[in-house]
Write a structure and sequence with these properties.
alpha/beta; Rossmann fold; 8-stranded mixed β-sheet; 31% helix; 28% strand; binds S-adenosylmethionine
């Protein structure tokens, strides 16, 4: 296995642990309670390294279905960069994983996450909207629009989960999302986060979860 792949695998194990800390059953934010398929919208997903981790995590959180016993999870990823979306499409294929009793349905779209209404696949609402390494610091107006869309795409009891690379950007995003109508449920620092070359930046350094204010 390449050292890049090893790093990626370790990052994913740590992300899974962070998800357990913020949306696991013992936490302030309970896992989504959908009867049917759990629907995840991953905005600004890049090549969506986290697709398998997210679908596995939310399948684990789900009660087994009646009937066929399969836990169904759908993930729809959106990013403006077509090359990254093509990479995600190549790596993550829908299918049934019989050993884990999970049916996964992946879809990846090239598009602007600040203008989701133009996509037909996006006219439904989601149990979870996820944004890994949101980029609020590098274009606050566009990211405010993306945050607005993220909140608007949640089911009434849905959850928005974000991760951030550095402390200031995380705090700015927390403030912006709360101003736009998000209610912060929990925010936790990842103490195992892998350091990046830029001082103060690290992978999934913070993870926060919101619901929409009533
Ligand atoms: C810091 S990267 C994070 C990528 C990925 N989530 C990850 O953690 O590896 C930010 C991502 O935002 C995407 N992005 C920026 N503006 C966007 C927009 N308006 N709509 C969709 N994606 C956007 C970029 O293409 C990039 O993939």
């Amino acid at each position: 296995m390449s050292s890049y792949q090893e790093k990626l695998n370790t990052d994913m194990q740590r992300l899974d642990k962070m998800l357990q800390r913020v949306v696991g059953p013992q936490n302030k934010a309970q896992p989504p309670n959908s009867d049917n398929s759990t629907r995840i919208l991953n905005l600004a997903c890049g090549s969506c390294n986290e697709a398998g981790t997210l679908t596995d995590f939310f399948a684990k959180m789900k009660k087994p279905e009646l009937g066929d016993g399969l836990k169904k999870v759908e993930l729809l990823g959106v990013d403006v960069r077509a090359r990254e979306i093509a990479d995600a499409q190549r790596r993550f294929r829908s299918g049934t994983h019989t050993e884990q009793n999970i049916q996964k349905d992946y879809q990846f779209l090239t598009g602007d996450a600040s203008k989701l209404d133009s996509h037909r696949a996006l006219d439904e609402h989601f149990d979870v909207v996820f944004m890994r390494h949101q980029n609020f610091y590098n274009g606050d107006r566009v990211w405010e629009e993306i945050f607005e869309q993220a909140l608007a795409k949640l089911k009434d009891d849905g959850q928005l989960v974000i991760t951030s690379y550095f402390d200031e950007e995380h705090q700015l995003a927390l403030n912006a999302i709360q101003k736009l109508g998000g209610q912060l449920i929990d925010s936790q620092q990842n103490l195992e986060s892998r350091k990046l070359p830029t001082i103060g930046k690290s992978v999934d350094r913070h993870v926060a979860v919101f619901r929409r204010k009533e």
